[in-house]
Amino acid sequence: MVSSPHEAMHRIFQEFPDLFSRLSEVLGVDFPPPTSVTVMPTDLTENRPVERRVDTLLQLETEDDGPLLLAVEAQGKKDPAKPASWAYYASYLLAKYRQAQPILLVVCQDRATAEWAARPVHFGPRQWPLLTLRPLVAGPHNMPVITKSAEVRKDLVLATLSAITHATHPDIGAILKAMTTVLRDTPRDLADPIIEFIAQGLGTYPAAELWRTLVAVDLSFYKSPLSEEIRDEGRIEGRTQGRTEGVIRRAAEDVLEVLAVRGIDVPDEVRERITSCGDPEVLRHWHRRAITAATAEGIFEDD
Predict the structure, then answer these.
(1) Residue ranges of domains in the chain
(2) What is the pLDDT of residue 216?
């Protein structure tokens, strides 16, 4: 499984290609819903040794505006070189697909990056700019924060993208809990890719561990690669924890056994301190002291 927010932020449009028509409403731009969608090749390389690839490219067929080319770029940080690349993508698409108008959608998880990407960029002299680049941008600055399961149910895929863009939001716990609440009764063929997209989209953010826990607990009946991985880890951790607890229990019993064999009375408070100790090194130390200590309390004298 690719654990990359970059992949999740653009590949979700390949998996759910009609997502853009709902997202455009959130962004305040009126694009007609597509009548059909075609996933296009992302290689924009010319017959020169310069390779250029857009992250995701879709052709949207519409009744009113004709075909549109949706180029989706996932942007993790500010990059001064990117606007020139994006302008190249737009020019190339215009030249190659003359009947389809290009749209550039940039998806971000960082507000500063999103606001940077949303600024119009002018190319050419200031007296007479030749080109103006105006990407559509989806990010934490304009995506809805969805913490209610009822809102998630209205559009599960849009809510998924929203959760990914809000990976560092203070309410990410409530956002992810609302997702698992809805996913519990979502058909598996839809739920499984949603689970994986969120796992990818959260990447190495702290929320990723929370999502793994929620999937393991709330979605225990799903058998997606992520859930199986989490449960395998849980089983291994459980076995490891069980072995550790067994070692500690036996070490405590050994301390008490030495004292008993030597005929030394063990008060209740001493017994409680020994049996409640969770450090095997301390218990081994007490075991050695129990061999020579004059009283049960004597095993603690040099602690």
Answers:
(1) 1-143, 145-222, 243-300
(2) 80
